[in-house]
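WARN  no MSA supplied for this record, continuing single-sequence
INFO  ligand: zinc ion
INFO  echoing inputs
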Amino acid sequence: MRTWTLGIALALAVVSLRPGAAQTPARNVVVITIDGLRWQEMFTGAGREYFKKEKSGEPGPAEKRFWRETADERREALLPFMWGTIAAKGQIFGDPSNGGRAHLTNGLWFSYPGYNEMFSGAADPRVDSNDKVPNPNVTVFEWLNTRPGFQGRVAAFGSWDVLPFILNVGRSHLTVGSGFAPVPLPKTDRERAINELAADLPPYWDYGPFDAPIVYAALERLRTDKPRVLYIMLGESDEWAHAGRYDLYLDSAFRADRFIHRVWDTLQSMPEYANQTTLLVTTDHGRGATTSDWTDHGAKVPAAESTWSSRLHFACITRSPLSAANVTRTLHARVTGGWGASGRPNYCRERPIGSPETISSTRRFCCRPALVRFDATGWLAPRPDVATVAGEIPCRIR
Ligand SMILES: [Zn+2]
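INFO  complex generated
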């Protein structure tokens, strides 16, 4: 992730319904990011050339666990929920082998610029480091937290201790759990136990714990406070990649998939969320595309520009060709059902304008709404054929 290393990364493009398409707005949104997980593993599973062999020349445990003969088998072995449920009942975008492309526009291809692009709607040249600098831009989370029905009901969790700065908690007053105390202001024995676990695990990275206690904290918040907007930042994948541990990078992706599955099952088990919640999963940047640079990302690793994203929505989508937009537009459209008469999301039109930075970012956002490319029909160009299209998306997740 991040901080002390080279510049890394970047971000994103997700899909959203075309303005005006028949749709049922979701009442809640959960966003999960998997830091620096490559599209290569997302779409084709483990790469054999990245595995280390045993001294005997035999495949090691990770290769035995994740290698399969076909790409479809490999990705399902690595990410069973992503490919068993999200791909089947939602959409996954960005597979270059099928002509899809999801990419970043910030040109830096490391984390803070990627998350800023993702959540404020546009790349910002002022956001050019992973330093703990409050984000000058209003993220969609900050904006939603001011809207009727959402005040105090937006929560975020992430191990990386830069997350509070990305979301500018000093200004936004968002509830953010990060670092070695993932539950802010714990009130129950269970919440205190989660913080104790985070503190008791080996402090392998200096900014925060492994992903597990972060996810536990987020799940507990779902159960207790029932936020309408929840963001979970998973970070281990990037760390193990930087360390050159392909085995643990794959394992972290496998566990991220299990976390996502658990979050989705929890959502579908609660009346406040079941069948009225959209799940978005994406990443902040890609990585190098070869065995010599897959560990890295940043402006000197151009392959890191390419990413992927996905979504799973509860509702039936009626013959709605998908167009591409960024997470901000997707979030807004799904949460508030808001597309203005201009065809632009209300987030753009209603975004508070009162300071130079919000004016500039609003202009950027409004004037350049598409962070990914469209073809003439409004599809992510070229059309993502991993996606289920044209009204064939099941109405309900079972
Ligand atoms: Zn990184």
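DSSP finds 15 helices and eleven strands in the chain.
INFO  checksum written, moving to next record
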